[in-house]
Specification:
mainly alpha; 2 domains; 78% helix; elongated
């Protein structure tokens, strides 16, 4: 009975994945995509793909650092699971590939899934820490779009928070000792699972592991930044360093903002904005030239609006003055007793004149 239920669940999950792939494929403009791929520099694009694969391999090594103390010491297995999870994250919602990583390693290494989940939680925490470090440095030392510059206080608060969390985890490590709990219902099973998770989390949190994971996280984000730069170059975008950093920060802002409308607004204000700036910049790594060009264009638009308003007011005042002069002339002629003061100039004729 259990085998039949598990088989049905696997078939249902496979069907859902296939349906999701079909729905996703229908949203892609394949003609425009293929045209962009044909026009791209294939050598640079292949180099970008290789750099991206290298960053995924380093992520696998970072996870392996936390997997070793719980009994899953195979580096190749950790790297394979990382690649599989990254592939599934592209087609599943809510990072469903991370759950697949836990199931894959737990079954392959014959380790409790609670322990594998604890290692994955630490690995994802350092992914977030690397992003926060990049965000804090970028908003402090680079001239980014206003949508990202407003995140400066939040970035430094988040950096202080994760630093405090790392210190807390390192200062209270615990040995991984299995506890015997008499499990009766689902509540007891859930409590035992969470207890195994917390015990493992405390047991594998040490200073050397955290230091190695932090170094690897910085390397991963540096490689991702290089991947974005190479991809833009392959698509013939002259994107400067500031534009590349703005693009990678906006795209990966899903760590903190989940609604699609929020990060879509930020992405629209970062990537196209950075591309326009890059085309007007003098130096490929300059972040201030596009700001000067945008301010000069705003000044030109303001000057044009000012000239239009001044000319409108001048023409209006001229019409009023002409109307007053015509009325004064007619009144003077009638006071002098002239019977034929001339043709009467009404307002429509004056306006046409």
């Amino acid at each position: 009975m259990k085998q039949g239920v598990s088989r049905a669940l696997r078939l249902a999950l496979t069907a859902l994945i296939l349906i999701g792939l079909v729905l996703f494929a229908r949203t892609v403009k394949w003609h425009a995509t293929w045209a962009a791929i044909r026009d791209a520099d294939r050598g640079v694009l292949l180099l970008a793909a290789a750099v991206n694969m290298l960053s995924l391999a380093i992520k696998g090594v970072r996870w392996w650092i936390f997997l070793r103390p719980v009994g899953a010491g195979s580096l190749w297995m950790a790297v394979k699971a990382t690649f599989a999870g990254a592939g599934l994250n592209n087609i599943l919602v809510a990072n469903g590939g991370e759950a697949a990583r836990v199931i894959f390693v737990a079954r392959a290494a014959h380790v409790q899934s609670a322990k594998i989940l604890a290692t994955l939680a630490l690995e994802r925490m350092f992914e977030l820490i690397g992003y926060i470090v990049l965000l804090a440095l970028a908003v402090s030392f680079l001239e980014l779009p206003p949508a990202l510059e407003r995140l400066r206080p939040l970035a430094w608060l988040a950096l202080a928070g994760v630093t405090g969390l790392m210190i807390f985890l390192v200062r209270r490590p615990e040995e991984i000792k299995p506890r015997r709990i008499h499990m009766v219902g689902w509540f007891d099973k859930t409590r035992a699972y969470l207890r195994h998770f917390v015990d493992t989390l405390g047991g594998i949190s040490t200073g050397p592991r955290f230091a190695a994971a932090l170094v690897l996280s910085v390397a991963v984000w540096a490689l991702q930044l290089w991947t974005y730069s190479l991809t833009a170059r392959a698509a013939h975008f002259n994107l400067p360093l500031v534009g590349t950093v703005a693009a990678i920060l906006a795209v990966n802002l899903g760590f903190a903002i989940r609604p699609a409308s929020a990060w879509t607004r930020i992405s629209r204000s970062a990537w196209p904005f950075s591309s326009r700036r890059s085309r007007s910049s003098r130096s490929p790594c300059s972040g201030s030239s596009w700001r000067r060009s945008s301010s000069s264009s705003e000044r030109r638009r303001g000057a044009r609006r000012t000239r239009v308003s001044i000319s409108t007011r001048a023409s209006r005042s001229q019409r009023v003055e002409k109307s007053k002069a015509a009325r004064a002339m007619r009144a003077a002629q009638w006071r002098r007793g002239e019977s034929n003061p001339g043709p009467r100039i009404d307002r429509p004729q004056l306006l046409r004149a």
